[in-house]
């Protein structure tokens, strides 16, 4: 730790402890109470983020019926979100590393919340089928652009404010909020869809997000800003804010020649390919194969299980680290469960014929994805702790590509072959490829 100026810290009058090779106030770890408050706030944020993201997959069948879309057009609407999502991953991480995730998060949330809320109004701006399709595609692109800031900013905050020994569980718990959001959207959204129409689901998700954004901004962020703003007398020649100006830029050239960095991108790409295909097409799969099944069941059960598997994975990872297992082994072990488990479940689903067996296997497939949160998803904080936001942004940009390529191709394959088995088998193969690459080249050691 850099040498501190005792006079400066006496005037600041804030607790300075639990630092980890850091400079200044911005790198102080959250204490136990703060960690719980921020974890709860960010957990809720991931929930409303995914609620807004999964509204369209939930109601796509109803929208397609009303507007006369085929599978390829439905796939375009679903996948175009990720066109925008890839654009802001690096920018989100870079800005969070420079100015703080607490600054970036509420601004971005304001925009994606309002886009979600006004989507039904955008859908009726024109009576022309193709113009309506284009308007919704553009709105989904902008939704992705603003949501792209969220996870890199959050990763930057956790890397700076949570110690390595507590990071897996904290990060996994926060990320499990995404499954809660999908769960709430699937349950409440399904009820709203059946009773009030698809438009009501957008209004519910958008309004919930606005409420979360305001609570985050005025309760959590303001509270901690007031607590940690340095109390320095004017005119003493001391800056009123301690910053990270001395921090070096991200050494990209060093990272780009490391196979471990590329294995991170490949593994995240392959796992996200499976997750986004399941996220986007799961409701349609059950609607087509089991038309009498209740939407609130198959839109809820997989995400209930996954929420617990995500937290369980984080707890296991932290326990293994506490018992002396290397970070590299722990990350590869968690990722093996994620990628191999998902792959096996997707292959098995092709041989099922009953509704309950399909629901059970799909729950396993999605639940295995939850272990990814304590594997590759937290790995940028291991290999580049000082630049976690920017590195996570690059990784998530690669991970967002299958969001539009994989989801669109799934729709195209379905339109051409009418076979769900073809979609699931090729997705399973991609998972196995990502697992092999990460097992061979991945690491938990700090690279930069």
TrEMBL record:
Source organism: Mizuhopecten yessoensis (Japanese scallop)
GO biological processes: ATP transport
PANTHER family reported in the protein's UniProt record: SOLUTE CARRIER FAMILY 17 (PTHR11662), VOLTAGE-GATED PURINE NUCLEOTIDE UNIPORTER SLC17A9 (PTHR11662:SF279)
Name of protein: Solute carrier family 17 member 9
Gene Ontology CC, one term: membrane
Residue stretches in coiled coil: none
Signal sequence extent: none
Keywords per UniProt: Membrane, Symport, Transmembrane, Transmembrane helix, Transport
């Amino acid at each position: 730790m850099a040498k501190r100026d005792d006079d400066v810290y006496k005037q600041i009058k804030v607790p300075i402890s639990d630092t980890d090779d850091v400079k200044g106030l911005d790198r102080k770890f959250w204490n136990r109470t703060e960690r719980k408050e921020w974890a709860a706030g960010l957990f809720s944020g991931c929930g409303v983020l995914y609620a807004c993201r999964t509204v369209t997959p939930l109601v796509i069948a109803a929208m397609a019926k009303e507007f006369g879309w085929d599978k390829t057009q439905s796939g375009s609407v679903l996948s175009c979100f990720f066109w925008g999502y890839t654009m802001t991953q690096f920018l989100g991480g870079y800005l969070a590393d420079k100015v703080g995730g607490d600054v970036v998060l509420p601004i971005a949330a304001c925009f994606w919340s309002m886009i979600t809320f006004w989507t039904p109004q955008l859908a009726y701006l024109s009576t022309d089928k193709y113009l309506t399709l284009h308007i919704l595609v553009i709105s989904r692109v902008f939704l992705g652009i603003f949501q792209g800031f969220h996870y890199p900013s959050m990763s930057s905050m956790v890397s700076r404010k949570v110690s390595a020994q507590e990071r897996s569980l904290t990060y996994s718990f926060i990320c499990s909020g995404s499954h809660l959001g999908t769960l709430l959207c699937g349950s409440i959204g399904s009820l709203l869809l059946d009773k009030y129409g698809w438009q009501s689901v957008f209004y519910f998700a958008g309004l919930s997000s606005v409420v979360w954004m305001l609570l985050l901004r005025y309760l959590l962020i303001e509270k901690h800003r007031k607590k940690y703003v340095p109390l320095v007398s004017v005119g003493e020649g001391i800056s009123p804010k301690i910053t990270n100006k001395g921090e070096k830029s991200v050494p990209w050239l060093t990272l780009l020649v490391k196979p471990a960095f590329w294995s991170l991108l490949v593994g995240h790409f392959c796992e996200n390919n499976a997750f986004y295909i399941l996220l986007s097409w799961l409701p349609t799969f059950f609607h087509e194969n089991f038309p009498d099944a209740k939407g609130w069941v198959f839109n809820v059960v997989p995400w209930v299980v996954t929420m617990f598997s995500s937290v369980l994975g984080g707890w296991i990872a932290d326990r293994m680290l506490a018992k002396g297992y290397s970070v590299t082994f722990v990350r590869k072990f968690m990722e093996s469960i994620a990628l191999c488990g998902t792959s096996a479940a997707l292959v098995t689903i092709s041989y099922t014929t009953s509704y309950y067996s399909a629901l059970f296997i799909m729950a396993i497939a999605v639940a295995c994805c939850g272990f990814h949160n304590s594997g590759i998803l937290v790995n940028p904080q291991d290999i580049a702790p000082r630049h976690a936001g920017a590195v996570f942004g690059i990784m998530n940009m690669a991970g967002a590509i299958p969001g539009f390529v994989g989801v669109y191709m799934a729709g195209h394959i379905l339109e051409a072959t009418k076979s769900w088995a073809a979609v699931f088998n090729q997705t399973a193969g991609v998972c196995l490829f990502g697992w092999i690459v990460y097992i061979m080249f991945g690491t938990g050691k700090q690279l930069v």
